[in-house]
Amino acid sequence: MEIRHLKSFRAVAQSLSFTKAAAELHYAQSSVTEQIQALEAELGTKLFERSNRKLRLTSAGIRLREYADQVLLLIDEAATVGVLDMQEPTGALAIGGLETFCTHAIPPVLAEYRALYGKVNVSVDVGNRRELYESVRRGDLDVCFTFDAPPKDDKYASRVLFQERLLVTTPVGHRLSRQERVHAADLHGERFLATQRGCGFREMFDKAMAQLGPESLRLEAEVSGIAPLRACVAAGMGLALLPEMAVRSEVERGELLAFPLQDADFRAPATMTWRRSREGVPSLDRFLALTKKTVATRI
Questions:
Q1: Is the CB of residue 273 less than 8 Å from the CB of residue 149?
Q2: Are 257 and 239 contacting, i.e. CB atoms less than 8 angstroms apart?
């Protein structure tokens, strides 16, 4: 089984298109087709089938994709063996995180990391939790930042960096601004905004709603993304429960108000997750060490 055949297979499996895979790999489409046919002949089974003019993986193709991801990741990791003992890290470092982390928590750490290890090519991607964990599992990301614990899987290693407080966020001039303290009962009847289902922040909101009771947190509308959610709150559409780091700048500029609840302490663990098999790679090890040392004091 040739590595180039596995690479072509994975490219087709990801895009479900021979044309897109050929363009990605800089091959002629006929070359990609021949490599897939050779792989199928070697395995004695079909890996793709067409249905209504659409390409999809067979059951054998689905199983092989898991193996191909693991094999190609190990090959990439093996290629770093020659530089593991170098004093200064080189190569690439792929970082992912929820929007809030990529906007507020990661940039200061990256600035310090780049100042120390300028030969590392760094990339940052935003995604939801499911996408981020899957990217770490496949090896597309070296490390990701999310709220709550990662999936229970031996492939992952993780560390809780800090506990992030959730604040009741309101527009300027809201009636709560006239109170010295805000209690759960003060939220009765208020309209709340939240992100869409499937988002980590929505899970936080739903947990708070379950704790306080639906009569306290009435969902007015769903908004896609933290930035537009903040804008909707500022415009007076409703209130929101948001991580403190996500509203700190707006509060300091006088664009929003944010209050902790006196009788309910909502917190979510800010977690850094990486692929365990990548430990020992200098670019990642230095980043993990720097983040553990500095991020909690920077937030």
A1: no
A2: no
Q: How many helices (H) and strands (E) does the chain have?
A: 11, 11
User: Comparing C-alpha atoms, which of 220, 113, 69, 134 is closest to residue 241?
Assistant: 220
Q: Reduced to 3 states, what is the DSSP secondary structure of residue 265?
A: coil
**Cβ-based neighbours of 288, under 8 Å, separated by 6 or more:** 143, 159, 272, 274
How many alpha carbons fall within 13 Å on the CB side of residue 207?
14
What tens digit of pLDDT does each residue of 33-85 get? 999 999 999 999 999 998 777 899 999 999 899 888 888 887 776 665 554 45
Dist CA 271 CA 136 (whole Å): 14
Q: What is the pTM of this model?
A: 0.66
- Report DSSP letters for 182-213, one per residue: B-GGGGTT-EEEEEPTTSHHHHHHHHHHHHH-
Taking the C-alpha atoms of residue 279 and residue 299, their distance in angstroms, rounded to an integer, is 25
CA distance 219 to 239: 9
SS3 call for 221: strand
Task: Put residue 80 in one of left, alpha, beta given phi > 0 → left and psi -120 to 50 → alpha.
Answer: alpha
